[in-house]
């Protein structure tokens, strides 16, 4: 089966101009789980074209140990990020689900209508909707065909405010993802210790809290695929 992985196209924080983008390990770890099991993961981005990578994602020790640097040094793999279709141009019906890749860039463009429409499309079809870290920004304010909110009564997780402060990005982001998810969802939970694995599965909705949860999200999606 095929899963659509969606990345941010935003490459800078709007306040400071510091570089951001996709958190690379959140793509590679999920990709490896699904493809090693025989499934396909195809990449798209909000605006299309080349996907920016958050430079910090190449330096974090836990991500390096997970094999991200090996992928970064593989030209064939990295070419997947070179010329991606925009989410508006993707045939959503050809995928079994969507995976919202994190990275701080999502705070600026996963709030847009094309992303919300794509997420609603998968949810209305009863397909898998998944995301990790800041990826669940794409779950906010998503209205389904019956007029209800995607997150109404649902259990979710996502990047916590304590992790935002630990990453020294609390002054850069336009809002607290923890606060928004807590307000919209039925239940928002986090790991007892920041930056440790935490994955929440609620039916076909799978969310992971932080970069260390990307493999776990992939494993949960794999189980749903059967």
UniProtKB/TrEMBL annotation:
<protein>
    <submittedName>
        <fullName>Chaperone protein HchA</fullName>
    </submittedName>
</protein>
<dbReference type="GO" id="GO:0019243">
    <property type="term" value="P:methylglyoxal catabolic process to D-lactate via S-lactoyl-glutathione"/>
</dbReference>
<keyword id="KW-0346">Stress response</keyword>
<dbReference type="GO" id="GO:0019172">
    <property type="term" value="F:glyoxalase III activity"/>
</dbReference>
<dbReference type="InterPro" id="IPR029062">
    <property type="entry name" value="Class_I_gatase-like"/>
</dbReference>
<dbReference type="InterPro" id="IPR050325">
    <property type="entry name" value="Prot/Nucl_acid_deglycase"/>
</dbReference>
<comment type="similarity">
    <text>Belongs to the peptidase C56 family. HSP31-like subfamily.</text>
</comment>
<dbReference type="GO" id="GO:0005737">
    <property type="term" value="C:cytoplasm"/>
</dbReference>
<keyword id="KW-0456">Lyase</keyword>
<feature type="domain" description="DJ-1/PfpI">
    <location>
        <begin position="25"/>
        <end position="223"/>
    </location>
</feature>
<dbReference type="Pfam" id="PF01965">
    <property type="entry name" value="DJ-1_PfpI"/>
</dbReference>
<dbReference type="InterPro" id="IPR002818">
    <property type="entry name" value="DJ-1/PfpI"/>
</dbReference>
């Amino acid at each position: 089966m095929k899963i659509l992985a969606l990345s941010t196209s935003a490459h800078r924080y709007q306040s400071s101009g510091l570089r951001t983008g996709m958190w690379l390990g959140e793509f590679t770890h999920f990709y490896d789980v699904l493809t090693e099991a025989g499934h396909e993961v195809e990449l798209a981005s909000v605006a299309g074209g080349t996907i920016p990578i958050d430079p910090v994602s190449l330096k974090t020790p836990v991500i390096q140990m997970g094999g991200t640097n090996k992928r970064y040094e593989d030209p064939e793999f990295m070419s997947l990020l070179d010329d991606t279709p925009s989410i508006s141009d993707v045939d959503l019906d050809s995928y079994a689900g969507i995976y919202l890749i994190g990275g701080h860039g999502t705070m600026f463009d996963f709030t847009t209508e094309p992303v919300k429409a794509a997420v609603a499309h998968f949810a209305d079809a009863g397909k898998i909707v998944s995301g990790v870290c800041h990826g669940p920004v794409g779950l906010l304010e998503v209205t389904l065909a019956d007029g209800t909110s995607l997150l109404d009564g649902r259990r979710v997780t996502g990047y916590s405010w304590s992790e935002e402060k630990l990453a020294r990005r609390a002054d850069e982001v336009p809002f607290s993802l923890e606060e928004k998810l807590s307000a919209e969802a039925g239940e928002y939970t986090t790991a007892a210790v920041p930056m440790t694995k935490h994955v929440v599965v609620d039916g076909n909705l799978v969310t992971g809290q932080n970069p260390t949860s990307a493999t776990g999200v992939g494993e949960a999606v794999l189980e749903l695929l059967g």
